[in-house]
TrEMBL record:
GTP binds at D13, H14, G15, K16, S17, T18, N133, K134, I135, D136. CDD domains: EF4_II (cd03699), EF4_III (cd16260), LepA (cd01890), lepA_C (cd03709). This is Elongation factor 4. It is an enzyme of class 3 (hydrolase). Signal peptide: none annotated. Keywords: Cell membrane, Elongation factor, GTP-binding, Hydrolase, Membrane, Nucleotide-binding, Protein biosynthesis. The lineage of its organism: Bacteria, Candidatus Magasanikiibacteriota. It comes from Candidatus Magasanikbacteria bacterium RIFOXYB1_FULL_40_15.
Amino acid sequence: MNTRNFCIIAHIDHGKSTLADRFLELTGTVEKRKMKDQMLDQMELEQERGITIKLQPVRMKYTPKNLKPDSEFILNLIDTPGHVDFTYEVSRSLAAVEGAILLVDATQGVQAQTIGNLYLAIEQNLTIIPVLNKIDLPNADIKKSSEEIIKLTGCKEEEILTCSGKTGEGVEKLLEEVIKRVPPPAENSAKPTRALIFDSFYDDYRGVVASVRVIDGSINKKDKITFMKTKADAEVLETGHYSPSLVPDTSLENGQIGYVVTGLKDLNHVKVGDTITATGAPASEPLSGYKEVKPMVFAGIFPKEGNEYNTLRDAIDRLKLSDSSFSYEPEHSQALGFGFRCGFLGMLHLDIFQERLRREFELDIIATVPSVAYSIHKTNGENIIVKSPQDLPEAQKIEKIEEPWMNCDIITPQGFIGNVMGLVSERKGRYKNTEYLSSGSEQRALLHYEIPLASLITDFYDKLKTVSSGYASLNYEFKQYEPTDVIKLDILIAEEPVEALATLIWRDDAYKLGKQIVNSLKDTLPRQQFVLKIQAAVGGKIIASERISAMRKDVTAGLYGGDVTRKRKVLEKQKKGKKRMMAHGKGKVDIPAEAYLAVLKR
């Protein structure tokens, strides 16, 4: 079979999307006049930030010059994200292919996420092709990077390919090696139809469009299909492939990757990881799909205007369709009204999600301070998971609280080991051991730590880059729950608690964080007509406080002549007015989005 299914995995910013551009050019999949940088990063946010957020499949046709000249091959490529927050996108891509290009930047060497993604590929028993990219740059160190790859994968030096995604050097050889090394899909065309859904999106006119890998049999236009997990039935309105736009075909054959237009308008009928089979001759068992991902960071998302709740729900439903690692459930807040408690894999995931709601659906939203999921053991023997500060039971009802701990891998040059160790110990991390990836004067170390997730979700990544001059990289995964001492920190503005700013913190950090939050709010909240109090409280005790002075208006400017008592009379009137306004103004302060962001990024 002349079909090869493969994906590109790498650490963030190692050149996956640029290499994919060269593949598209070399195979003539996209016309030169339509070609642009990061062709497969089709989201505006991806283009702006220079990172891949969504996996993107594309089919290429290629006749290699140095293999059988008469054979045309169909190459199905999936471009994947590199950031740790989008690991689930990578795992879904790996389940749909037989091979993976492990791309390493020759100027940076192996990074933390390179290792994380490699382990995911090994779990799926994929053929790994190690490749060094960016060899055209003057500071590329091919020898050192090759040593690191050999130590990591156990491959031979001659198995490592070199290329430049920017200039195109070595790209043709790489495609030929993909054809040589990656095995073709198994021949299962006679078996009952089974296709794995690895992604999906919603079309206003044609309903849910599922991205699939056909494992057994084939899917034809007008076939009656059944979704084995949700038990939903549909008729195939169209099948086709990504090139990278949607190109219709009469059918999707065994081993191919493409899309199926289902016509279904109910978004709950199509789940990522589900199996499509023929309604008339169904398969006996579904495909294994994916392990359910556990969100680690939770935040409340509320519409700024209460009448936009239904619009927000529809928008979240649609984003859930194309982002299956995200979870949500309805939530009600006395201050913010009806909204959703949403689960994310990390802070970048949360940031991107908020931005997509604002841009793609033009929604004004309020996001509460993110929190991790705590396991609460109550005195009555009940065990609950708390995702929001508002759900924390009273102190006398709690027997113990447990928080999630992560296994954390940090790769850093030897010269910054001390700085990195200082940062991790400051964040309550526990040292396990150190491995060295390379030898010589510029030796790099892989530090293994255990660290509370609460330490990672705020600004740990930024601080890590600061203490290592940008050279360190980070990867982490869930380990277990461990006992902790956590309390609820309330923020009061004009003596009224603001639910969206409440947060769960370690008891011994309460004063420091309370002071940080009130200071950041003092800098971002607008001045009012009255003195504005900003306070941080634990229980009923105020632990930090700031004031924003009232706006000043010279009410005596219009007076001229006369006795000084005239001025005093007007000033007294103004003073009484401010007191009245302060009494009525409690809780009526409009908090701008910048203030919420200042606390999120404290």
